[in-house]
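ARCHIVE RECORD
Type: protein–small molecule complex
Small molecule: LLP
Source of inputs: curated submission
Record status: active
Notes field left blank by submitter.
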Amino acid sequence: MHSFRYSGKKFFCEGVDVQALAEKFGTPLYVYSQATLEGHFQKLDQAMSGVEHLICFAVKSNSNLSVLRTLANQGGGFDIVSSGELQRVIAAGGDPRRCVFAGVGKSEEEIEFALRRGVYSFNVESEAELQRINRVAAGLKKVAPVAIRVNPNVDAGTHAKITTGTYENKFGIAFEEIEGVYARASKLKHLQLRGLQMHIGSQLTDVKPFELAVRKILPLVERLKAKYALEFLSIGGGLGIVYDPALASGEEVWWETPAAKKILTPKTYAERLIPLLQPLGLRILMEPGRFISGNAGILVTKVEYVKRTGKKNFLIVDAAMNDLIRPAFYDAYHEIVPLRQKAGVKVASDVVGPICESGDYFCKDRPLPKLGEGDLLALLSAGAYGSVMGSNYNARPLAAEVLVNGKQFAPVRERQPVKEIWAGEKVAAWLK
Ligand code: LLP
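STRUCTURE (tokenized, with ligand):
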């Protein structure tokens, strides 16, 4: 997929010069490539063609309406975690009957809304939640389709803040307890036991933990299927992507290079999992977020100041941790490239935002070309957990977003008007 690359000295998204977008829409600016979204969806879809399956895009990774519509048009379903996300899917033209509703804290209102809209399944995280869904369904004279999330206690070997498959965290029901929970759930009249779900973590760059987890739950799935006529097994999301080109070779589109392929591709994922999954005769659901949206988006930012202190070269840019929090929060690596390629020596630079926190940085001591005020940069691989984790910290408006399709482009989110930030606030009457 050649969606973000230099052509001559200019950095392009598909057929569009990104600098032209920055000039038209301002910065900070998220730019998404439709071809990359579609390409990644299709790659996974094709790789998994050996089993009946449904790809439920994890809306939490990128919930822009145009991104959701792109994936709905591909025939995708959605993994949602709030009624807000379900409403987004509906607003984007997605089908609630292709949605799975996950999350440890579903409220009664959320459950009722999802039941009325007819979601495909609730992915349930506790017995108390089963009771609650049963009660709400009874009130509506409905039967709620559910899948229970099994925690297979497999270490995904990923960042501590995004690992979910071990007993150290709040997710799912312990492997050893799950059959008892199904037995009790089967007595609840307003539940239909439709599937089993698991998700072991995010940004997995090795197929082994997936394989281990699937192997571990197979006998359990077979028993549950025989007893309760389950329809599906969800193997969750978590496929990692390449953030750091140092892990790949020096080719242009580094997340598609042979070295990157060794890390984890849909092909490897499917080759190792399909032989295990196929004999189950179940529909297989997946919940990828980052794999589809991660490398389909960049964050464009402008250098405001170059500041040299005794030891350091700071590039102070107009994007900040409120726009992309991953480096501050997870120490995440995002490749940074200038929109106009520059030859010459590289300078160890810290790219930092204007927010009053030392954590507000995008990289430290990274060799970057010599840049000056007004130069534009792109932070790559920002399509997943980028804009969605944005905030108004320091009263900074949420960034604008643009979708590119070939030579076409469209603004898909306007820059938030500053006054909207406090539109819901009031000065208490006694202060006046
Ligand atoms: N399914 C479940 C139940 C999940 O909890 C998640 C992500 C996914 C699917 C999608 O995972 P993915 O395919 O995108 O890895 N903000 C963090 C990532 C948090 C992931 C939360 N759960 C980051 O920026 O790395």
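CURATOR ANNOTATION: The longest strand covers residues 297-308.
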